[in-house]
Amino acid sequence: MLCQECGKRPATLHFTKIVNGEKTEFHFCETCAREKGELIPGTSNGFSIHSLLSGLLDLDPSGKGQSPGAKMAQTLQCEECGMTYSQFSKLGRFGCSSCYKYFSDRLDPLFKRVHGGTSHVGKVPKRTGGRIQIKRQIDDLKKELQIRIVQEEFETAAEIRDQIRELERNMAQG
Amino acid sequence: MSNLRFTDSALSEWMRGNGQDSDIVISTRVRVARNLQHLPFPLLATDQQSGEVLERLTDVLKNKDDLQDFGDLHVIKLSEIDELDKKVLVEKHLISPNLANESRNGAVILTEDESVSIMINEEDHLRIQCLYPGFQVREAWARATALDDVFESEIDYAFDDKRGYLTSCPTNVGTGLRASVMMHLPALVMTQQINRILSAVSQVGLTVRGIYGEGSEALGNLFQISNQITLGQTESEIIENLHSVALQIIEHEKNARARLLGESKLRITDRVMRSYGILSYAAVMDSKEAAQRLSDVRLGVDLGLLEGPEIPVMNELNVKTQPGFLQKTYGEGMTPSERDMYRAKLIRETLGTH
Ligand SMILES: [Zn+2]
Ligand SMILES: [Zn+2]
Predict the structure, then answer these.
(1) How many Å apart are CA B179 and CA B156, to the nearest integer?
(2) Is residue A3 in some structural domain?
(3) How far is A80 from chain B (nearest CA, A)?
(4) In this protein, which residues make up the domain named Phosphagen kinase C-terminal (chain B) (predicted)?
């Protein structure tokens, strides 16, 4: 979500202001909040998370609607659930998990701005995350292999190398 | 269904306990968002598809062995309870407003002590939430991930090698993990250090939510600190980051309280006592004033300035003074001014001053 003030930096301070029972949400980056001298300005009307997010996903930042990138994005569509990229950018929500695949090219910049990172490094489900678990196992074994070679433990190194090959074969098959 | 026992009492079992640092951290919440493979997210799911999600997720409960540690689990379908009960579940933080209002085939699974609530067909198919008293970030995560493991052993989650757990909203993708602590920071507000501290917090990947009234003071001096990032960090990095930052804020609040006691004990005592007096005898009390007075009294009790209600009673009042609960207690269809009257009455009765 972007800061509602500058529209550039991610908003990290969120406030709900209640005046006469009416709720208003504010979203600021740290810099703008500080520049305001206080955290809460008393202005502005309703601002929803979704509209902020859709600002972030805006198809055409130039506002001219003519750039080739924007044109391509308009025709992007998830073949699984039918959601178009332009719908996604308005709703700020994916329709199904395949949307991640069909919109993939456009997601890195978005994730970079929202999260700083673009790749998952956390927990992996045993049932559907098999490949990534094997991949991580291989990476670990490769590090181990390097250590063994440096320490001239060649017999163990050979065993580890075989394990890596076996795992890589499994991955290629499945 | 008229007899929903989870909405009879404002006090969840978990609120009776005092967690670590519960004079400053009210509660800790951790949730993980998950979705089933090959089914559209609730936003686009048909009735039949969301029904299938509900059925497959509740089927997991039949596997009793894995769930023994969690005690009895109660499945509540939102279509089967009335609007007021929904409202009360929201006020107790057991379900989200989103689930109460919009969800098709929405349901919640609650543990006996109400510390775990599993929402089905909210924004994501599955949201596992653990709510603990006091400062228990690690404990709450341990419980949430253990429950996640149970579901994971029976269900194929939507998961991608690169993006991790796939969620409806791009802000949850990756770990699907949102961890937060609700902190009561009156001394940092009074000593005007709060802005500086909240700004610092926002620079380390955390976000702050506060509720403000008409003035510049936070309503009830309550601030929720939670992680902003869900993609590109491991769960333990997220948990430990929140843990260590919250610890530092606790430390700052403690120092500010000590300073207040040292420099302006009489002024603080007066403020606390006045608030306690007003809560004890007022005939009309709006929600904003209630939040502020309750904050003062909580601080007074924490600082030993007042032999007042214990923390569970204060937690109970925070929930009970909200609109849904007031109507549950005193009857539906109140006007706002009637609500203010009943709120005052309820506070007087809870404090034993009638
Ligand atoms: Zn800004
Ligand atoms: Zn899709």
Answers:
(1) 24
(2) no
(3) 8
(4) 24-256
Q: Residue A110's closest CA among A55, A48, A60, A57?
A: A57
Closest partner residue to A111 among B206, B207, B231, by Cβ? B231
Give pLDDT tens digits for B30-47.
999 999 999 999 999 999
Domain co-membership, A55 together with A22: no
Residues A158, A96, single domain; the answer is no
Q: What is the pLDDT of residues B224-250, one digit of tens each?
A: 999 999 999 999 999 999 999 999 999
Task: Please indicate, yes or no, whether the overall pTM of this predicted structure exceeds 0.95.
Answer: no
ipTM, 2 decimals? 0.88
* Residue range of the domain that includes A41: 13-47
Residue A1 in domain: no
Q: To the nearest whole angstrom, how far is the Cα of A155 from the nearest Cα of chain B? A: 33
Q: Evaluate whether the domain defined by B1-15+31-174 bears CATH number 3.40.50.300.
A: no
| A97:B158 CB<8 A | yes
Output the six-digit token pair for B81: 């309870």
pLDDT band at A55 (very low <50, low <70, confident <90, very high): low
Answer yes or no: is A20 within a domain: yes
* Cα torsion angle, B285, B291, B292, B293, sign: positive
A&B contacts, CB < 8 Å: 178
